[in-house]
């Protein structure tokens, strides 16, 4: 290198060194914050205070035993579309397993597409490659979000329902003639009030609560969600002191709905969504309760923690722009839970 070239390089380097770094930082922050808000509003609609609002599910028909139903229960007629990372879709797989409906209801898996956004079918079906195309097939011109789970009717090629809480209620009660465990009732008449009470509380503060923490766009909205989340986890932990499951000695829909959030908690919500006051494994009852549910026959097979980590950390770009997937934490759900001896007589909640 000639000495003039050398001097030029030095001059450029000195000039760069002299650039006021506070302006670079300011510019970087300005551009990134604006971009971040823009991306977050696409990812997660919010209200004026910056709090996340979950959009409503739009397909709300029912598979029903009732006379004249457009969707009568039948073996092989209905299919679930699920993404293994999704807690809402996971609920449907757990109920399908607990009821023993594997032969009656088929499952099609979808995976997130980092480039296109949205879900891609792992196996093309009905000429559809993406879940958005499945929604279009069901309702041409559909303009809402294409979410999992989907309960699909193969006969009429339409979506019966895309709301997990309703799909699990149908799987519990309408398919008993095809179920391996028809008498296992996850929503028994005498416990309905209790189950509904827990569901209401847990949906807001925990199931959707973790998203309200992770998708909050202001400090206030985050803190409010975080406080509600941990207050409710404390309340559940206390209730589990004297009850093996939320509503007593048998598993109910309330436990299933809580389980799929707890399963993801220490691995993704604690870090990525900043739900980090405490880990589930550090609670005296919630940790063993999570292991108890995980160890119920058929449940572990519905769980894929690697898919969960890959999807949350890999695809929620505004929350993790570097795309780095953490190595840990190591959570062993196969360790003994010692919950069998927990009593179940004390009343919980306000009834
Ligand atoms: N209310 C729905 C929520 C389902 C949901 O939000 N699923 C997410 C995955 S965890 C999804 O598919 N999101 C895709 C999108 O919003 O475009 C339910 O409970 O079934």
From TrEMBL:
It comes from the Bacteria. GO terms for molecular function: glutathione transferase activity. Glutathione binds at residues 119, 145-148, 163-164. Pfam families: GST_C_2 (PF13410), GST_N_2 (PF13409). The active site is at residues 86, 211. The record marks 269, 312 as: Lowers pKa of active site Cys. Residues 188-322 form the GST C-terminal domain. This is Glutathione-dependent reductase.
């Amino acid at each position: 290198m000639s000495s003039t070239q050398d001097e030029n390089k030095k001059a450029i380097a000195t000039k760069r060194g002299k650039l006021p770094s506070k302006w670079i930082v300011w510019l970087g922050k300005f551009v990134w914050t604006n971009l971040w808000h823009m991306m977050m509003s696409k990812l997660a609609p919010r209200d004026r205070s910056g709090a996340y609002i979950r959009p409503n599910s739009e397909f709300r028909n029912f598979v029903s035993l009732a006379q004249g139903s457009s969707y009568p229960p039948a073996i092989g007629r209905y299919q679930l579309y699920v993404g293994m990372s999704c807690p809402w879709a996971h609920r449907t797989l757990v109920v399908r397993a607990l009821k023993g409906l594997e032969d009656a209801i088929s499952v099609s898996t979808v995976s997130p597409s980092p480039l296109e956004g949205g879900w891609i079918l792992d196996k093309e079906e009905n000429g559809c490659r993406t879940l958005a195309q499945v929604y279009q097939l069901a309702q041409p011109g559909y303009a809402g979000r294409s979410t999992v789970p989907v309960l699909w009717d193969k006969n009429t090629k339409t979506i019966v329902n895309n709301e997990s809480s309703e799909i699990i209620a149908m799987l519990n009660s309408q398919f008993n003639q095809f179920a391996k465990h028809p008498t296992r009732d996850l929503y028994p008449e005498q416990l309905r009030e209790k189950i509904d009470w827990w569901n209401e509380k847990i949906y807001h503060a925990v199931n959707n609560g973790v998203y309200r923490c992770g998708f909050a766009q202001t400090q206030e909205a985050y803190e409010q969600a975080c406080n509600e989340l941990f207050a409710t986890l404390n309340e559940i932990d206390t209730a589990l002191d004297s009850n093996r499951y939320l509503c007593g000695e048998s598993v109910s829909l309330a436990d299933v709905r809580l389980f799929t959030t707890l399963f993801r908690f220490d691995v993704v919500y604690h870090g990525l969504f900043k739900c980090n006051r405490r880990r589930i494994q550090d609670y005296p009852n919630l940790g063993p309760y999570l292991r108890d549910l995980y160890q119920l026959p058929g449940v572990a097979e519905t769980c894929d923690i690697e898919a969960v980590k890959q999807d949350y950390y890999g695809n929620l770009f505004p929350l993790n722009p570097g795309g780095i997937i953490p190595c840990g934490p190591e959570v062993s759900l196969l360790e003994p839970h010692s919950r069998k001896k927990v009593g179940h007589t004390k009343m919980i909640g306000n009834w």
